[in-house]
Amino acid sequence: MKSQLNELISNEDLARKRVELRLRGVNITAWASERQFSREMVYAVLHGRARAHRGQAHEIACSLGLIPGVSPTPVNGTGGESAK
What we know:
By secondary structure, the protein is mainly alpha-helical. It is built from four helices and no strands. The protein has a domain at 11-64. The radius of gyration is 12 Å and the shape is globular.
């Protein structure tokens, strides 16, 4: 079932992503800051209050891997740089 506010992402997908982040021990504030996203907007996307159709909300949803067919940015990394 799709959220009324967010036709792209189901409530189940959002709940799964919140659980995944919690299980990985990801601090949402730090994750947002590392990617120069607004902490409030990240929470809005994760709770279905932001539609994620365009702008920062869409970028956040893509980075979290919530938009089908769009490559996500690694959740625990800073953007896929290889460690040396």
